[in-house]
Amino acid sequence: MKKTGLFAVLLAAALTTASFAGCLDKNSSSSSRVRQSSNIPTSIEAIGSNVVDGEMGKEVTENDTGFTLNSVISAKNSETGEQFIYMDITLRNNTDKQYTLSTLNNFYIELPDGSKAESDVRTQLYAKQNFNESKYYADPFDIPSNGQFSGVIGGIAVSGDASDFKLCFFPTGDNPRAKGTVIKYDITSGDIHAPAAEMLK
Fold first, then answer.
1. Helix/strand/coil percentages in the chain, nearest 5
2. Does residue 41 have a cis peptide bond before it, meaning omega lies within 30 degrees of 0?
3. CA distance between the termini of the chain
4. Which helix or strand (DSSP H or E) is residue 152 part of?
5. Please, what is the average pLDDT of the chain?
6. Rounded to an integer, what distance in angstroms lies between the CA atom of residue 74 and that of residue 93?
7. Do residues 85 and 73 touch, judged by C-beta distance below 8 A?
8. Residues 6+ apart with CB under 8 A from 185
9. How do residues 114-163 score in pLDDT, each as one tens digit?
10. Is 70 exposed, middle or buried (0-12, 13-18, 19+ CB in 10 A)?
């Protein structure tokens, strides 16, 4: 009987040790999985870290996207005195994947004091009321695979007397967060035009 009792105690001790060791293995492998999954890449490219100078009417190719700024259009908001800035653009997609761009994500204006003006929903409401639908495209707009998009898009609201600024475009392609490269155009008063007659309703 004593031998049987001693055997039972030894067996229980062996099972407890094995169980404890199994718990340790599970915990250690679990914690190593957590450490591995929490690694964050440190090589993320800063927004706008690569600046490319653009020239009106000339194509710039970045990130498999050919971009041409054809003209800058300004419509006056009679209620506030602001300018609503629109862009006549041509975009070529040099990939076999269609993607979508928007004024909100891909364009902004950099003013001389360093401040930024971005997409304003009022400009799209104005355009829908006043611009020909065959000329103006509201956000977002699709760029076909191995194809191109041409038309007037926007816009961005700036003060009524703004005449010199930088118009900036992120060629993000099919990754809307790929904003390491920005194409910047120096815009002066001579580059800004009123909407053409065929553009109006």
1. 30, 35, 35
2. no
3. 105
4. strand 148-158
5. 84
6. 27
7. yes
8. 53, 54, 55, 56, 69, 166, 167, 168, 169
9. 999 999 999 999 999 999 999 999 999 999 999 999 999 999 999 999 99
10. middle
Q: In the structure encoding, which two tokens stand for residue 196, read together? A: 């053409």
Q: Which amino acid is at 134?
A: S
pLDDT digits (tens, 9 = 90+) for 155-192: 999 999 999 999 999 999 999 999 999 999 999 999 99
175's tokens = 């990754």
Neighbours of 197 (CB within 10 A): 7
Cβ(75)–Cβ(120) below 8 Å: no
Give the integer Cα–Cα distance in Å for 201 and 194: 14
Q: How far apart are CA 141 and CA 127, in angstroms?
A: 15
pLDDT digits (tens, 9 = 90+) for 69-79: 999 999 999 88
